[in-house]
Records
---
Amino acid sequence: MSNSFALITGGSSGIGFEIAKDLANRGYNIVLVSRNEQNLQDCCKRLSEEFGITSDYISSDLANKESVRHIYQTTKERGYNIEILINNAGYGIATPFHVTSLEDEEKFIRVLATSVISLTKLFVRDMVEKRNGKIMIVSSVAAFAPPSAIQVLYGPIKSFMNRFSDAMNSSYNHIGITSTSVCPGFTVTNFHTASNVQKMMDDVPSFMKFSAERIAKEGVDAMFKGKSICVPTKTYKILVFLLKATPYWFIRLLENTLAPGRYEKKET
């Protein structure tokens, strides 16, 4: 495993960094990708010192069209065998859909969807050649939830990512390559602050909020088992089951109780 690397986008904080720690603890070398170079340096130092593995980083903004090819070429130039690809980077847009600029929406789609597809396409070619590899896409329970009055594109994109991951798994698992979509619910990270929806997160009942460490562990375990989809924690497994089985009108009655603020009408 000395030259086996896991590449993790959005890997310098939250669920991404917890996934990095879990994989480093299993002996994998790590390549972290995010925008903040200082955070990346600090995280790499922590991983190497705590787990005795090789850790490196690539400072890149996935909103930039050229970032995906830059990330891939950099790993090739450095001679890294990317055995595991973790597509984790993401954020939310709190402003109403009609207010957000077209450019911001395009960047959002690029980070959450287009870059995921592009990175997967580039790295899966190497995995096919080796007939070995694992892909994880960090999705969301929002993929199963009713449409939201805020972050209008977030749920639909996550639904798309679940279908994409399932298609990848179906297409390549017969040659030793699996893809796992991990769908966490409310997770205590800096995601909500960065997305300007921290107040909504503060109003969510405490029993519905879980640590990034727990989400990462359950997600990584599912990935190594080759599961197509993983909904971490029993709480959200039950919730997703109910979302699938319960009449839509009844879910609409409960939605603001389950996720305060998410479905409120926004002032124009």
---
Amino acid sequence: MKRPLKKARVPINPPLSARDVEEALEERISTGKYPLGQRLPPVRDIAAEFGTSPSTVSRALQEMMRSGWLEVYERRFVRVRDQLPSNVVRSADIQRSARAIAHKWKLKGGSYDELIATLSEIVADVFKLQTEFVFTECNPNDLNFMAAQLAQELPDSTLNCQLIKELDKDELERDGSVILVPYFHYAEVRKLVGDALSIVPIHFKPSVETLDKLLTIRPGSNILVFGRDQRSVQRLSLMVREYVDAKITGITIDEREKLPKLAKSADAVVTVSTALETVPRLPPIKQLIEVRFELETSLGNRLKNGPVKSAAP
């Protein structure tokens, strides 16, 4: 008689806030992923990708419409404006922070010229420093695979790698490190290290090899999605739907006792390495697609040439 598999405890990642979603969408518009005038994906698709609720995404879209990024087109869908006001390209967080600093300075009797001189000195020091980037992910395979791509985009920068569970907040603060993290782990890392550190969420997309394998799946197939947690299942399911017209069933690590039966009847199993690591022995599978992610190169250019965004205002 086979012993039942022990259920591994999987940490529940905190969902992204409406402001986090705003920043992600603003970045995609700024880098051209969502061109001017283009329709945005449906709210539920955005929510599934970022692992948050549709209501959170709706609040983010409403705020972006108020600030001039988006508009409702002919009462049918939300799209990027054909022309963005000049003020929207500035970070709202930076504006709020600068305003708060200026008010506090003024209340303490400081002069305008003194404030500008102090800020100029601080900013100059920051831009003179050689920034140390720390890339983090939840498993060694993806950590090394993704970091190799980032290193190519940042040839003149110091790039270290650490698993999320190994991040040392105090050490990172002492070194003045900037954390680079895939968007789907952004909220998890921010909760772990706090707001004192600069965290830059990075967009990764399915690799060409992964997409090639997805395109071999026949329409109408039964697909089993096996993810690390519910957010991972949602993200993988959304990705599959974009390329395959198929019937999708999703399970998490906590439900892996269902894997043998569901995998046997599935035409393909789509999963990530962190989920596979929890299964000592896989049942016979017709087609196994282990998803890998690759860096969107426009982000590499932004990191190399643009200012680093802080996680906190």
